Amino acid sequence: CKSVGYKKDMTGMKVLVTAGPTQEAIDPVRYITNHSSGKMGYSIAKACMLRGADVTLVTGRTSLDAPLFVNTIPIVSAKDMYREVISRSQDMDIIIKAAAVADYRPCNVSDEKIKKKDDDTMSIPLERTDDILKYLGEHKKAGQFLCGFSMETQNMLTNSKKKLEKKNLDMIVANNLKEQGAGFETDTNIVTMITPDQIFELELMSKEEVAFHLLDKILELKNKM
Ligand code: CTP
Ligand code: CA
Question: Region annotation Phosphopantothenate--cysteine ligase: residue ranges (predicted)?
Fold first, then answer.
């Protein structure tokens, strides 16, 4: 009988992956969110599990099934994700932040449904959410590998490199939303892996394949730490 499966080169490693969008409530009926499907993060969590890692997936609301053999923690808002990630981060060997976290949330959440008024316009005051990845970069323990994602529609390399430095990351995976076959709701992606001193471009491939390539690179770099 031929053995099938992937090499178990992550056995014994603890990995935290985040995925999906966050939802920021306006009132009991409405919220602010983004187009993240969660597919990239779920593919990474699954690939880590197949390679033998002990995987925790902190995920915003998606239409995907929780991956088997992964400790899946569902969250709704950026604040929930912050709490669930920060409370587990010190234990982790690798953290991969594929989630699309809201940068702003409504300053106040109305207890009652907001009724429309006679004015033609209305505005909702927003406040900044905490940057989870920045916190993780500031509190990175020795040997821990921190990988972020970067979604851009222009100046992808320059902007992503800035995020890598500002958040003290070991790698950032950049995707340009305007490229065909890349981005939020597709099953495929075109990504560029950026480290402090190197850039690796991957061609168009399924998000599952992207996940395996990312992990190959992360393990190679982690072994040199
Ligand atoms: N991120 C986070 N917490 C936030 C915002 C973003 O942890 N409050 C993480 C994302 O999960 C992602 C990385 O930061 O891994 C980059 O997110 P991105 O939205 O591309 O960049 P920002 O730093 O938020 O900058 P901007 O949206 O202005 O491009
Ligand atoms: Ca952002």
Answer: 15-225
